[in-house]
Amino acid sequence: MSELLKVPTMAEFMAAGKQPEVLFWVGCAGSFDDRAKKITKAFVKLLNKANVEFTVLGTEESCTGDPAKRAGNEFLFQMQAVTNIEVMNAYEVKKIVTSCPHCFNTIKNEYPGLGGNYEVMHHTQFLKTLLADNRLTIEGGKFKGKRITFHDPCYLGRANNVYEAPRDLIRKLDAELVEMKSCKSRGLCCGAGGAQMFKDAEPGNKEVNVERTEQAIEVKPQIIAAGCPFCNTMMTDGVKNKEKEGDIEVMDIAELIANAQDL
Amino acid sequence: MGILPQIIFAIALFIGLGYFANNVRKLRRNIKLGQDVDTSDDKPQRWKNMAKIALGQSKMVVRPIAGFLHIIVYVGFVIINIEVLEIIIDGLIGTHRIFSGAGEIYDILIGTFELLAFAVLVSVVVFWIRRNVIKLKRFMSSEMKGWPKSDGNIILYFEVVLMCLFLTMNGADLQLQLNGAEGYHTAGSFPISQWLLPIFDGLSNATLIIIERAAWWMHILGILAFLNYLYFSKHLHILLAFPNTFYGNLKPKGQFSNLEAVTTEVMMMMDPNADPFAAAPEGTEDEVPAKFGASDVQDLSWVNLLNAYTCTECGRCTSECPANQTGKKLSPRKIMMDTRDRLVEVGKNIDANKGVFNDDGKQLLGDYITNEELWACTSCNACVEACPVSIDPLNIIMQMRQYLVMEQSAAPMELNNMMTNIENNGAPWPYNQMDRLNWKDEN
What is the pLDDT of residues A215-255, one digit of tens each? Predict the structure, then answer.
């Protein structure tokens, strides 16, 4: 399968004198984390299917600096940001899509002040435009009628008020979308944000991801849909912690759509 | 009696308002101890936010029960203050119910005040029950012990007493009107206090006048006392909610501002033509280098400090906080309360030292807020979203993390590893940047 993936780099496009329609910002998780790489590939399959002329930065991509900034290291963040901006401005990047809400938020909101002005979309928003332009169709396939609950990533939802794009896509699968008791603007964090992903939690009586997974289990879903590689990890761990991995799958929206069509 | 009551009234009013004005001056000074931030952008949106969030209570009703009861008390408070205006005019020029010339409108007004006063009484009793009988979880946190708990109840007692005095005054007045007592002309309608008539029936006019006057005096003196209590209380939100929502953040919640001092340095490092040995620009040689992040209240912005004075300790932030829900020490409400407590301490220090802050060896970080609290935050913005008056505890947490990391290198070890990885290979994990596209060819 994988040899069918077309993933041109920005450098290749530049050499051929072409400008891509959009730059796919893969992100560190999407590049290196085994679980997140599957999301990356699923999204690329959809881009290929819709004949989107996209590129990636490949080895020229570097961490946006989000975890450094949230950990308090403004210096490291700005070094990362300025370096990335230099690369992207040299390629005259106009439009960026990313499957990571943290990259999305940082590039969209924090790069403009440092000279990086781009149109930035989360992959769920981008998929919705492909759908609206009839470049991509969504079939329910094996997810038809399944109970799916969506876990709002903080950096997509509260941070940037994107609540509907992922939900619209789930509805297109002819699935039964069920909401957890805290959702949308009151959605509970998965516990990974603010650089928590990279450290142990402070002493408490429960892990945040377990609390959130319990909220999800309450609505008896067959699938917990996520829109963030870090949320995905946290929810997957939560489901394992509750020994529910036989009943509940944690999947990114891009994976749902790609798998529904057996891509 | 003659003019004596008027003189006493004028003196009481002068002292009450004067003391309040003096405290407002201190409040402004304390808030201005914070760093300057530009809030001159998008004024129309700021006015809109104030109208919607503070005046319109739009975020209060997210929790319907508390929201509904709060709107009653809020509307009651605002409207019944028209009556206070009448009391002040009567008190100063020695008239009785000066607005009663408005006839039917006056009847409607007084009737409305009475109905509202009763509704406020009921709401306040429910509030008291929620705090003291039902013991809602968010009122029982560790930071709510001692003064904050008493403060919450004192405010409720104040409101009960004021409303009861208002209704007693009206009831006695009505009885005097019915008795045809001199000076008590027929005015107003009394849908609530008429039920008090059986108590007053049979009392002499002289006794009734004493009751009516006593209630009148205690009511207005009580209001002046309450006004002056605000400065020492979490109840300041009734005033500060308005400027606080006006100056609230307009940017997307996920956007954390970029530190300018850092940008200057980063740009210099990235500039191939920059001379690292160049002398500082003219006139800046003696400047102390900017401190990165915040360790005390003076390092925070004045909006952060206004936030701290505005917080009424409702705890909606803390009840939505993922760290707090899972038993961590972090409570966004405590961050705000600590900031205010420290600011008040700094303010008193300045008062005691003739207008200059005398280093007391204490600071917000460590003496009030611990590292453990700061590192428990997931930066999820749930606290910011939950606040009914646009307070941003997350902003303070992030500034203090900046201080810990950039001034003290005091990040938890795992975070230091993460940051070293980013520095060395452009990812939070130890993977080679050259392997970034390997996923494409993996199965």
Answer: 999 999 999 999 999 999 999 999 999 999 999 999 999 99
Q: Is residue B274 part of a domain?
A: no
Contact B427 A32 (CB under 8 A): yes
Average pLDDT of span A168-197: 96
DSSP A110: I
| Nearest residue to B29 (alpha-carbon basis) of B236, B309, B224 | B309
Considering its fold, how many domains does chain B have in total? 2
Q: Do A186 and B259 touch (CB under 8 A)?
A: no
Task: Report which of B400, B403, B395, B398 is spatially closest to residue B368, judged by C-alpha positions.
Answer: B400
pLDDT digits (tens, 9 = 90+) for A86-103: 999 999 999 999 999 999
Q: By CA distance, what is B397's nearest residue in A? A: A72
- Between chain A and chain B, the number of residue pairs with CB atoms below 8 A apart is 229
User: CB burial class (10 A; 0-12, 13-18, 19+) of residue B295?
Assistant: buried
Which amino acid, B284? T
- Beta strand A119-122 with A223-226 is unpaired
Are residues B389 and B321 part of one domain? yes
Q: Do B86 and B144 lie in a common domain?
A: yes
Cβ–Cβ gap A80/B437 under 8 Å: no
For the entire predicted model, the pTM comes to 0.95
Residue B43, in any domain of the structure: no
Confidence of residue B285 (pLDDT cuts 50, 70, 90): low
Chain A contacts of B375, Cβ < 8 Å?
199, 202
Q: Note whether B419 contacts A26, CB cutoff 8 Å.
A: no
Q: Is B418 within 8 Å of A199 when comparing Cβ atoms?
A: yes
pLDDT reading at B151 higher than 90: yes
Asked if residue A1 has pLDDT above 60, the reply is no
Q: A94 lies in which domain range? A: 2-131
The answer, for B64 touching chain A at a CB cutoff of 8 Å, is: no
Mutation target to probe the B interface, by most B beta carbons within 10 A, among A62, A63, A80, A213 is A63
CATH of the domain at A106: 3.40.50
> What's the pLDDT tens digit per position in A132-180?
999 999 888 889 999 999 999 999 999 999 999 999 999 999 999 999 9
Report the number of distinct structural domains present in chain A. 2
Residue of A nearest to B263 (CA): A78
CB A189 within 8 A of CB A244: no
| Sign (positive or negative) of CA dihedral B355, B357, B358, B363 | positive
Q: In chain B, whose CA is at the least distance from the CA of A160?
A: B252
Task: From A131, A156, A186, give the residue that closes a domain.
Answer: A131
